[in-house]
Structure prediction request, 469 residues.
Amino acid sequence: MKPSEKQQKLLQDLPGVDRILALAQNLPEYAEIPKTILVGSIRAVIQHLRTAVFTHEAEIPTDLAILSAVKKKVDWEMTPNLKRVVNATGVVVHTNLGRSLLAREALDHVVEIAGAYSNLEFDLAAGKRGSRYSHVEALIREISGAEAAMAVNNNAGAVLLCLDTLAKGKAVIVSRGELVEIGGSFRIPDVMARSGALLKEVGTTNRTHLRDYEKAMGQDTGLLLKVHTSNYSVVGFTAAVPLHDLVKLAGRHCLPVMEDLGSGTFIDFSAYGLIKEPTVQESVAAGADVITFSGDKLLGGPQAGIIVGKKALLDQIKKNPLTRALRIDKLTLAALEATLRLYRDPLKVVEKIPTLRMLVCPLGVIEERAENLIRLLESLGNQRISLMRKKLASKTGGGALPLMELPSICIGLSIQGMSAAVIEKRMRTASTPVIGRIEDDLYLMDARTIQDDELTVIRAAVADLVQAV
Ligand SMILES: *Cc1c(COP(=O)(O)O)cnc(C)c1O
Prediction:
C-alpha cells in the first residue's frame, strides 16, 4: 500500500542508521559494545519506528528517545539468555528453574577446577592415565554402603546405560504400577524400548504380588526392575513387592534386580518430621544389584545420574561404549565430589546443601524471611501496594515426595490498578526475573524458596513495577 501523505512526511523525519550510530559512538556507555550489536540494535529500533508510522502514524521520537530505546535493545542483546531468577514458587526442586542450588563448597570447587588443568583422567600417584570416575567412586561407596559406583550425565542416562548393559534383547519384568512418566518425556516403557530390552509388565495398576513376578520369569528374563513411583502415589487398595523380597526371588533364579530410585536421597527425611522417602542406603542394604538415582533432585548436587551396586555388574556397565556418550563432564564432577563430601557430616549436611536446607527449614525461619520481605516492600512507601501474609503449602517438586505439603508462608502482593496476571508477568520479565504464582486472583511469593540475599532483588522488581505506570 502506498504511504499516505502524513506517513510520507513522518518517514522523512525518520533518522538514518548512520546518524544514530554517530551519536551513540560519542557516548561512553557504548565503548565496549561490539559494532555489529550496536548497528543491529539501531536498525531494529528504526525499523520498529517505521512500522509504527505505517500502522498508526506514530510520531517520530527525539534522537534522545531513540537512543534510549537503542540502549534498552543493546542491554537486552548483551545479557546472557540463561540468567538467574528468583524462585518464589515454593517448589524446592523445580526442574524448570534448574532443580538444585549448589552448596558454597561445590561452587568453589567448580570455579577452581574449571579455571585450571586438573587430574581429571590422570593418576597422580602412578603418573599415568587415570579414570574420571575414580574421584567420586570411593565417596559414593562410603556414603551408600555399595560395593561399586559411577556417575553419568543424568539419571535417564543411567537407566538407559544399565538396561542396555544388563538386559539388551532380554525381558525386563516391571510392575504395572511402576511404569512411570517423569516430566520432559522420560517414560520407562520408552527408555526400555531404546535400550533394546523388552518390557514385560506384571500385576495391575494398584496391586502387584511376588507371584506375578514369579509367573513371568522365564528363559528370556534378563532383569527384574523396580521403579520408585517418585512423582505420584497409588493409594487405597494397593500392594507392591518390597525390594528385599524381589531380591530373594531373583537370587533363586540367578537374575539381577535393578532399582530406579529417581530422586534418590542419602537422608532419612522422616527424622526431620517429613514424609519418608526410601534412601539409597536402604536399597543397597536390601540387596539390589544396581540402583540408579539423580544428582540434582533430593541429593542437592549438579545434574548427574548415579549408579551404585555390585562390583561385577558395575564393571560390565563401565565397559559399555554408551558410557562414553553419557559421560559426566568435569565441571559436574567437581560439583558432585564437593557435594558428596558434605554428606560425610550428617549433622551439618542439611544446613550446607541448599535443597536440604529449604526442605527442612523450620516455619519460624520462613516467617521471619516473609516479615523481612514485607518490611522491605513497605519501605518503598507506595500507597498502591498492599501486602498480605498467607499460610499455604510449598512442594518438594522434582518428582519427589508427591504427597508432602510443607507448611509455608506466602506474601500476597497486590497493586492498585493492576491485575494479578499483569503483576505476575512484570515480575517474571523483570531484569532479574521473579517467578511467583497466582492463586484466587492474588499474586503470591512463597518465602520458603526465596534466598535471603534475594529480598532486595524482589524489592527492586516491585519498585520498577510500581514506577512503570
Ligand atoms: C527424575 C527421574 C528420572 C530421570 O532422572 P534425570 O536425572 O532427570 O534424568 C528417572 N526415573 C525416575 C523414577 C525419576 O524420578
Summary: The chain has three domains: 5-78, 86-94+360-467, 101-352. DSSP finds 19 helices and 18 strands in the chain.
